[in-house]
Design a protein that fits this description.
Strand content: under 5%
Distance between the termini: 95 Å
Number of helices: 20
Number of strands: 2
Order of helices and strands: HHHHHEEHHHHHHHHHHHHHHH
Shape: elongated
Oligomer: single chain
Length: 415
């Protein structure tokens, strides 16, 4: 009785394996007759991928991989004829098709009756992969257009990994020139950027730069991605890309030197930061932003009684070079208002009469000067003028200027 059960199990297993092989053949016939059925037909192969008798054989994976590439070819013909196609399905047929073919290649060893190992599908697999290597980028573009950014990232990644795949070895497709691959890496970074996957974003941009991409965009996007890291981490990362961009684009974009200065300050390298800005000013004395940066440096300098006056001087140079520099006016107004507060605190034991005279002759002129700068800031940049408005309200309140006080409050309320 026990023997019969064992024999029965063997028969069942044999039927199961035969059934899976028959299933794969049926799918192969269906795909040959109608390649456009690939998305549905490949699902029918799932039992063959998991059955212990067929899961490690090349045949089901070869059929699935070839079907994926045949589907792409078929859909591209339809697309060229103006018919509607599923870009996402086309893109994933390339990614999945490659994965199936690599799996098939790793399983493609058949031992004949004489014990000699042979391959059955390897030649066709290698030909399919090499002929469709450029379609990894095509698939990435399809997936990008379908807003499947993770899929696009994966497809572009195959442009780099396929030529180095150890399963393919010497038969792997030849890698594209760096001038093309650095563009793919940049696009891959943009895909990760859209996913807000900052780690993968920077890995891709670093790869693009290493492959020779020196476009301004690659540095700017990398800096923008780095901004999403915690404060303690972001500054040195932003400075790293700014250091690379500065020699190329520093003359047209002052932001790079600002990122570098911020990193120096965070690292306590104040003297190096000051020297760097002064060197830049010597090279481009008509650059208003550099005077602004130097003013900020002085403003944040500790244990220096002359620092605030030095900062004021730099901000005045800033707006002198660029009369439309809103932030320069903002800092001028802020520091001038602080100067007025210091003057008010130094009145000591003045009588009321003395204090009123002091206000009219000393304090109020400084407050009016601060108001002038802040009004100019708000005029130039009303969308970002909340700081200017807050200080203007305090100034007009101190000046007992009811009309301007009401005007500022109305602006703050959105009237």
């Amino acid at each position: 009785m026990k023997k019969n059960v064992i024999l029965g199990l063997c028969v069942f297993a044999g039927l199961s394996a035969a059934a899976q092989t028959s299933l794969v053949k049926e799918v192969e016939r269906n795909l040959k007759a109608k390649p456009s059925d690939y998305p549905a037909q490949v699902k029918n192969l799932q039992p063959a991928f998991t059955n212990e008798e067929t899961a490690n054989t090349a045949y089901p994976y070869f059929v699935a991989g070839k079907g994926g590439y045949d589907y792409l070819d078929n859909q591209q013909v339809m697309q060229a004829a103006g018919q509607n196609v599923d870009l996402k399905a086309m893109g994933h047929s390339v990614i999945d098709g490659y994965g199936y073919l690599v799996k098939a290649l790793s399983c493609d060893t058949v031992v004949d009756a004489k014990g000699k190992a042979k391959t059955k599908y390897s030649k066709d697999i290698i030909k399919l992969i090499n002929n469709h290597y450029n379609d990894f980028n095509t698939a990435a573009v399809y997936l990008w257009e379908a807003q499947d950014y993770d899929g696009a990232y994966q497809a572009w990644e195959l442009c780099f990994s396929a030529p180095e795949n150890p399963v393919l070895g010497a038969n792997a497709p030849k890698a594209l020139p760096d001038s093309i691959l650095n563009v793919y890496a940049f696009n891959q970074g943009l895909a990760a950027y859209n996913l807000q996957d900052w780690d993968r974003t920077l890995v891709s941009f670093d790869r693009s730069i290493a492959l020779g991409n020196t476009s301004k965009n690659v540095y700017d996007y990398a800096i923008a991605a780095a901004y999403n890291y915690p404060d303690s981490v972001r500054t040195p990362i932003m400075a790293k890309y700014a250091q690379q961009a500065l020699p190329l684009y520093g003359a047209e974009d002052n932001a790079y030197i600002g990122y570098i200065i911020n990193d120096m300050l965070q690292s306590g390298k104040y003297n190096e930061a000051e020297a760097m800005v002064k060197q830049a000013i010597a090279a481009t004395p008509d650059n208003a932003q550099l005077y602004y940066i130097l003013g900020v440096l002085y403003e944040n300098k500790e244990n220096d009684s002359d620092a605030e006056a030095a900062a004021l001087e730099q901000f005045k140079k800033c707006v002198s070079v660029d009369p439309n520099h809103a932030n320069g006016y903002l800092q001028l107004g802020y520091l001038t208002f602080r100067k007025a507060e210091a003057l008010d605190s130094a009145t000591g034991e003045m009588t009321n009469a003395e204090y009123n005279k002091y206000k009219d002759e000393v304090l109020f002129p400084v407050l009016r000067e601060a108001a002038k700068y802040l009004e100019k800031c708000y005029e130039l940049d009303p969308e970002n003028g909340s700081g200017a408005l807050a200080n203007l309200r305090n100034i007009y309140y101190a000046l007992n200027d009811a009309e301007n006080l009401q005007r500022i409050e109305n602006i703050q309320k959105g009237y």
